[in-house]
Amino acid sequence: MITFIVEDRDGTQVPIEIPEGINLNLMEVLKGSDYPILATCGGMALCATCRVQVINGAEQLPPPGDAELDILDTLPFVDESSRLSCQLRVNESLEGCLFRIPQED
To answer: What is the pTM of this model?
Structure first.
């Protein structure tokens, strides 16, 4: 099992356990767990409505790709902790991470 924590907009933290080898990204898991992720573009790294903040564990995640960096660069409200959940595959790199759903911008 891969376990990570999600902090909702109200500050509630909930551990999420996902079987290893599942072919999903973090956005799909968050939407399936009823978190308020819009994901307007459906996970194509075009809209940033699936943005999360990585509070713990950023160093173990793969670096953002060009498409993710391009969309994040267009947003005025991001910092180095911002990632697009659609670009984070659910695998062992997420183990122990803490992701925050940011307030609506």
So the answer is: 0.93
